[in-house]
C-alpha cells in the first residue's frame, strides 16, 4: 500500500536498499517521497557517492602508501626464524 | 615468477611493502599495520600445510591479512559494547538531523547540493577528508562502515561477525552515513 513517509524514514530506506530488496509498497512510498523532496533526493545520490569514495580512497591508499621500514622487515624475519621458518 | 613452494624467510622482503600498504590503508596507524603484517606472516607459517601450490602465494597472504583486518574491525567494534539505545553515544543520533515531531530534515542539516563536488576538491583532498571523517565516527560505526563499504562484506556477514541484529545494523549504518555526509559537507562539499 502506498503511504506517505517522512525524510527520516526515506533516508533509512535509502541506506537499506543496497542490502535488502524493499517490498513493492515500500519502494513506491520511497519513490513518491523522492519525487517531492529535493533534500532526500540529494541524500540518495550522496549516500551512494560516500560508499564509492570510501572504497576508492582505500584502494588508492593501498597502492601509493609508504613502504614497510627495513627495521620492521628485519624484526619480522627474526620472528619467522624463531617460529621455525 | 612466484615459486610454487613458499619460502617464509623471504616474505618480509618480497611481500612486506604491499601487505603493509594494504593494512595501513585500512587502519591508518603504522604500528597496528606492522603488527597485522607480522601476524599475517606468523599465521601463514602456521598454516603452511594448507597452502596449495597452484594458488598464488601473494593472494594467499592477502586472504590471511584481510581476515586479520576484519578481526581488527571486530575488536574495534566490540571495544565498547553498546545496546541499541546507546548506539548514538559519542556520536550523533537521528534526532540531531530530523525534526522529532514530523521526521523531516531540520533546517541546517538538510543536504546541500554536491553538484560541483569534483570541481571543488582534488580527489586526494576528498579522500583525506573522508578518512578524517571516518576516523571521527564512534568506534562501532566506523568499524561497521569500513566492513560494509571498504571490505565490501554483506550486511549478513557483518551481523554475524559483530553479533548484531539486522535492526541494530541498519541503525548503525544509517547514523554513520548521516554523520559522514554532514562531516564532508562541513569540510568543503556543498559550498560551491
Summarize the structure.
The complex is a heterodimer of chains A (85) and B (192). Chain A is built from four helices and no strands.
Structure description:
The complex is a heterodimer of chains A (85) and B (192). Chain A has four helices and no strands. Chain A is mainly α. Chain A has one domain (7-82). In chain A, helix 1 packs parallel to helix 3 (38-64). The radius of gyration of chain A is 23 Å and the shape is elongated. The model of chain A has no long low-confidence stretch (mean pLDDT 93). Chain B is an all-alpha fold. Chain B has two domains: 8-78, Rna Polymerase Sigma Factor, Chain: A (Orthogonal Bundle), CATH 1.10.1740; 84-186, Orthogonal Bundle (Arc Repressor Mutant, subunit A), CATH 1.10.10.10. Chain B is built from eight helices and no strands. The radius of gyration of chain B is 20 Å and the shape is elongated. Residues 83-89 of chain B have low confidence and may be disordered. The chains are: A mainly alpha (85), B mainly alpha (192). At the A-B interface, helix 1, helix 3 and helix 4 of A face helix 1, helix 2, helix 5, helix 6 and helix 8 of B.
Low-confidence stretches of chain B: 83-89
Provide the number of structural domains of chain B. Answer: 2
Low-pLDDT segments of chain A: none
Give the CA-CA distance, first to last residue of chain A.
65 Å
- Briefly note the CATH topology name of the largest domain in chain B: Arc Repressor Mutant, subunit A
Largest interface by Cβ-Cβ < 8 Å? A-B, 48 and 58 residues
As a percent range, the share of strand residues of chain A is under 5%
Mean pLDDT across all amino acids of chain B: 87
The number of distinct β-strands of chain B equals 0
Helical content of chain B (DSSP H or I, runs of 4+): 55-70%
**Mean pLDDT across all amino acids of chain A:** 93
Number of DSSP helical runs of chain A: 4
Give the biggest sheet of chain A: none
CATH architecture classification name of the largest domain in chain B: Orthogonal Bundle
Largest sheet of chain B: none
Amino acid at each position: 500500500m502506498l503511504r506517505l513517509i517522512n525524510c527520516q524514514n526515506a533516508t533509512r530506506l535509502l541506506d537499506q536498499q543496497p542490502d535488502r530488496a524493499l517490498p513493492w509498497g515500500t519502494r513506491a512510498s520511497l519513490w513518491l517521497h523522492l519525487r517531492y523532496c529535493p533534500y532526500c533526493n540529494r541524500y540518495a545520490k550522496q549516500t551512494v557517492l560516500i560508499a564509492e569514495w570510501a572504497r576508492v580512497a582505500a584502494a588508492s591508499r593501498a597502492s601509493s602508501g609508504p613502504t614497510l621500514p627495513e627495521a620492521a622487515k628485519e624484526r619480522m624475519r627474526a620472528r619467522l626464524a624463531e617460529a621455525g621458518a | 615468477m612466484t615459486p610454487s613452494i613458499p619460502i617464509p624467510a623471504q616474505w618480509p622482503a618480497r611481500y612486506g611493502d604491499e601487505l603493509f600498504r594494504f593494512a595501513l590503508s585500512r587502519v591508518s596507524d603504522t604500528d597496528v599495520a606492522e603488527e597485522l603484517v607480522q601476524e599475517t606472516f606468523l599465521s601463514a607459517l602456521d598454516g603452511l600445510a594448507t597452502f596449495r601450490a597452484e594458488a598464488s602465494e601473494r593472494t594467499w597472504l592477502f586472504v590471511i591479512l584481510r581476515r586479520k583486518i576484519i578481526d581488527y574491525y571486530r575488536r574495534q567494534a566490540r571495544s565498547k559494547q553498546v545496546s541499541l539505545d546507546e548506539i548514538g553515544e559519542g556520536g550523533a543520533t537521528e534526532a540531531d538531523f530530523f525534526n522529532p515531531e514530523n521526521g523531516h530534515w531540520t533546517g541546517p542539516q538538510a543536504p546541500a547540493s554536491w553538484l560541483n563536488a569534483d570541481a571543488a576538491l582534488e580527489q586526494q583532498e576528498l579522500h583525506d577528508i573522508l578518512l578524517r571523517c571516518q576516523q571521527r565516527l564512534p568506534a562501532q560505526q566506523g568499524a561497521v562502515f569500513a566492513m560494509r563499504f571498504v571490505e565490501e562484506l554483506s550486511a549478513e556477514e557483518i551481523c554475524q561477525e559483530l553479533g548484531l541484529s539486522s535492526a541494530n545494523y541498519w541503525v548503525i549504518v544509517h547514523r554513520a552515513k548521516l554523520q559522514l555526509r554532514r562531516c564532508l559537507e562541513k569540510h568543503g562539499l556543498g559550498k560551491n
